[in-house]
Amino acid sequence: MLIRFITLVLFLLSIATSSLAQSDPKALIDQLGKADFKQAEELIGQIAATGDPRVVPALNAFAEGDLYARKSDGAVFITKAAGADFTLIDPLSGESAGEAPKGSMVKLRINNNLRRVIRSATGGLTLLSPDRAVRLQAADAVLRSPSAENLELVEAALSKETDGEVRARMQEARAVSILISERPVDQKRAAIETVASLGGRGAISILMSAAPSLDAALKPDVDAAIARIETTQAFWDMGQNVWYGLSLGSVLLLAAIGLAITFGVMGIINMAHGEMVMLGAYSTYVVQEVIRTSAPNLFDWSLAIALPVAFLVTAAVGLVIERGVIRFLYGRPLETLLATWGVSLILQQLVRSIFGPTNQEVGNPSWMSGAFQLGQMQITWNRLWIVAFSLSIFIGLLVLMKRSAFGLQMRAVTQNRRMASSMGIRTPWVDAFTFALGSGIAGIAGVALSQIDNVSPNLGQSYIIDSFMVVVFGGVGNLWGTLVGALSLGVLNKFLEPWTGAVLGKILVLVLIILFIQKRPRGLFALKGRAVEA
Amino acid sequence: MNFKARLGGAMLAAIMSTTAFHGAFAADDTIKIGVLHSLSGTMAISETTLKDAMLMLIDEQNKKGGVLGKKLEAVVVDPASDWPLFAEKARQLISQDKVAAVFGCWTSSSRKSVLPVFEELNSILFYPVQYEGEESSRNIIYTGAAPNQQAIPAVDYLMNTEGVERFVLEGTDYVYPQTTNKILKAYLMSKGIKAEDIMVNYTPFGFSDWQTEVSKIKAFGSAGKKTAVVSTINGDANVPFYKELANQGIKAEDIPVVAFSVGEEELAGLDTGPLVGHLAAWNYFQSVDTPVNAEFIKEWHAFTKNDKRVTNDPMEAAYIGFNAWVKAVEAAGTTDTDKVLDSIIGVSVPNLSGGYSTVMPNHHITKPVLIGEIQADGQFEIVQQTPAVVGDEWSDYLPDSKDLISDWRKPMSCGNFNVATGKCGGKGS
To answer: CA B227, B231, B233: angle at the middle one, nearest 5?
Structure first.
């Protein structure tokens, strides 16, 4: 009897110690250093199961790729790069553990699957954090990667939560977790309702992934919920398409608006227009490089600084082209076409020789990165800024043309050169400055386009056809035509794309424009009067 | 754009070919090597690097004493991204400059354009880029990956490690993505993926407005099954694609993108912070941790005098091809095309990922497949590496080509032997 008792005690003791060893987070984290992806996944589960909130920074560092193992003893640390060395931080206590050369540490390998597991695990662990923002984030994490294990944690957190927004998020996280748990049917039915009220693609995704494992009795509920979400989603998709169209239209407007002056107002078939856009983009690159090396804290202002630089650079190049080539070719459109085309090739190869043929990195300032949610629509900041920017350029140009002395002279010269000349306007210089203005506008368009496209020597080529298309469609010589033309082509394109695919959509747009030009050769807004014949 | 690019390219090339790069006067104490890569036009972005890599390799070989006791001499021409011009330049290299072998081409269109020239004039082309397969020429050694050396292992990784059940095959509209996607679709369906779980989508060259496409991917990915994008998007269109992915908040954890045309060079123009975790499949990454690779990178930085220049997979393919040629010439004792073609089969040279690559009888080589995740510094972290895989020229997953094999050893000497009918000849050449 006594022996039995002793063995029992020993047995219990051994269980206790072994489970103690298994729940020691430090030991578990150190084991990560030697684990492959599969073992690491299990270890993360065990680390999370300790319920110790101190492991969260280590797990986050793991997901970020900042967790390293020391080669000599296999101990695992969070690291921060400090020159050629790493600053080591103890994974649990967060205290500094000295420095080590980079060569003496091995990075713990991480993949997408582990990142998902970590997100879910840290979500569960931080639900009770005293920091409201962390709790919100945790609820989000549980919502995005739900697991049945987290359900009780969420419910425990819910019972203590007082903040309204966090509570709502946790309710949603709870509902999502219930769907994949073993809870009774009526709880699940309520959960379906909660998820459905979330709306959007995310909710459809959650419901569809849970559907196969759900009780047959719940199937009608799920189907009804999905159908309901899809009805509202269709409405939002429509709005999203209009937005995409406007945003594409604004890019077309940006690319074309300089051409609306050189081609539209002056009648020069300027094949080097795209290269002006490209030069503008490269100006942005150079400005950013200078800022990166000399004044990094100004980086968010780099685009604002690049605007005047790009305008001046491209306007100067435009001025040189007009004085050097185009002025000898007025009235000879075919020669102008060939000459400006030659200029475009020279400019491309020049840029290729100076900057190299590869893409250059132009960074997005923080205020142009990311997106925000408008209902079920997602609007990216860079697109929003580009729409605003292109409209303000359009308005600025309109004011310049209609309200300034230069604009007046410009219109006078293009409408009746000899009369303008007789009135004392120096027409050659008006020509030169008008061309420079058109080029400069193309240059600042390049600043904006550098945010969404490649900055490479080929940048201009991809916009030249579209630009001519917009100007011809909108009506040569009319700024309003360019605006309406660009926006309607953008929206048309984006409405065709989901139905026909991008390739066929583009072809259809071209065919429609050809048909339209057959019917209205002067485009949407045809100039009337004597100017047309001149 | 294409019309203009081509005409422009032709004009430039006309200028270039009469001026630059013509140091080639026949001298018997050198062996000439043709380098046929676009230095201007749209493809210059990718091909210029390969030209530099070839010059470096030739330079290194000359430091070691050349080949057969003779120095090597590079003859560089610029086909200016213009496919018909590739054929003209190839003809010029072979007939006028009398080069012993040519290293060059990038796009499949350029390779298809020069193929008849190499067969007619009986010379050798080393082609260093991953391609769609379905071809085997007696006069071309394919050192880039065939689909089974890149695409198929990549989707295997997605299915096995990431648990992906739904695939978007997104590509640029031309021959490489179309053929690769056809093979992939057949492969995925043979693995039990249903047709409604595969979406194939194409966009034009240089596509830049990805908003609709990316939200389509998002919508496709919200069907409750783990979804991934397999991207065969070509060069320039990638930067706006990844920017849009990042801006719309698609994270690699949710919908990973695995790309076959995005390497270190393409990421150079991009802020890769938001892209961490998206994948690429290649046979080489700059981050490969082997002594031979460290040496190669050091040489590259010294040669280009720029320690920020990255190395990439086609460079490794050029490295393997060049070394295989050197070895074959030394074994044959001559640069005569027929003898070199006989001796090159079975030649084994070290690759940069720590193993050996062998030229197989089908003129493709063996190499390992590496899956890498994009890191914040623009490099890749290797998450999987397979043992060496033999390049399969005729895909086993396409009904047209599953019976075809290629074997350039005598007595078969056939690029499209049909094992079902027992005859040489069939689809392709």
So the answer is: 150
Q: For B109-123, give one letter per residue: b (16+ CB within 10 A) or e.
A: bbbbbbbebbeeeeb
- Contacts with B173 from chain A: Cβ below 8 Å: 503
Do residue B209 and residue A251 have CB atoms under 8 angstroms apart?
yes
- Coil, strand or helix: which one is B426? coil
Query: B38 is written with which tokens?
Result: 């676009």
What is the phi/psi pair of residue A6, to 5°?
-65, -45
Asked if B202 has any chain A CB less than 8 Å from its own CB, the reply is yes
Say if B160 is an interface residue toward chain A (CB within 8 Å): no
Which ipTM did the prediction report? 0.81
Largest CA distance in chain B: 68
Strand pairing report for B30-36 and B404-407: unpaired
Q: How far is A394 from chain B (nearest CA, A)?
A: 21
Work out whether strand B380-385 and strand B227-232 pair parallel, antiparallel, or are unpaired: unpaired
SS3 for B85? Answer: helix
Distances (CA, A) of A524 to A246, A456, A476, A482: 18, 33, 9, 9
Residue A525: what residue type?
Answer: F
Q: Is residue B99 within 8 Å of B34, Cβ to Cβ?
A: yes
Q: Any idea what the Cα angle at residue A324 is, between residues A320 and A330, rounded to 5°?
A: 115
Q: Provide the 8-state DSSP code for B70.
A: B
Q: What is the pLDDT along chain B (429 residues), one digit of tens a residue?
A: 444 444 444 444 444 444 444 444 445 689 999 999 998 877 887 899 999 999 999 999 999 999 999 999 999 999 988 999 999 999 999 999 999 999 999 989 899 999 999 999 999 999 999 999 999 999 999 999 999 999 999 999 999 988 899 999 999 998 899 999 999 999 999 999 999 999 999 998 888 889 999 999 998 988 888 999 999 998 778 888 988 888 888 888 889 999 998 888 888 767 788 888 999 999 999 999 999 999 999 999 999 998 888 999 999 999 999 999 999 999 999 999 999 999 999 999 999 999 999 999 999 999 999 999 998 888 999 999 999 999 999 999 988 888 898 999 888 888 888 888 888 876 544
Q: Which residues pair with B169 in a beta bridge?
A: B200, B230
Neighbouring residues of A518: CB distance < 8 A, sequence distance ≥ 6:
none
Both tokens of A429, joined, read 């210089």
3-class DSSP assignment, residue B142: strand
> How close does chain A come to B230, measured CA to CA in Å?
15
CA A216 distance to own-chain centroid? 41
From residue A15, give the alpha-carbon distance in Å to each of A18, A20, A26, B10. 5, 8, 19, 80
What element of type H or E holds A419? helix A417-422
Strands (DSSP E) found in A8-110: 67-70, 76-82, 85-89, 96-101, 105-107
The upper half-sphere exposure of residue B142, i.e. CA atoms within 13 Å in the direction of its Cβ, equals 32
- Alpha-carbon dihedral sign for residues A364, A366, A368, A374: positive
Residue with tokens 């684990």, as numbered in its chain? A35
User: Phi and psi for A94 in degrees, rounded to 5?
Assistant: 75, 10
Contact between A257 and A390 under an 8 Å Cβ cutoff? The reply is: yes
Residues pairing with B404 in the sheet? B418
Q: Give me the residue from B173, B222, B243 closest to A202, CB to CB.
A: B222
Task: Find tokens 């923080």 and name the residue.
Answer: A366
Query: In the beta sheet, which residues pair with residue B382?
Result: B372
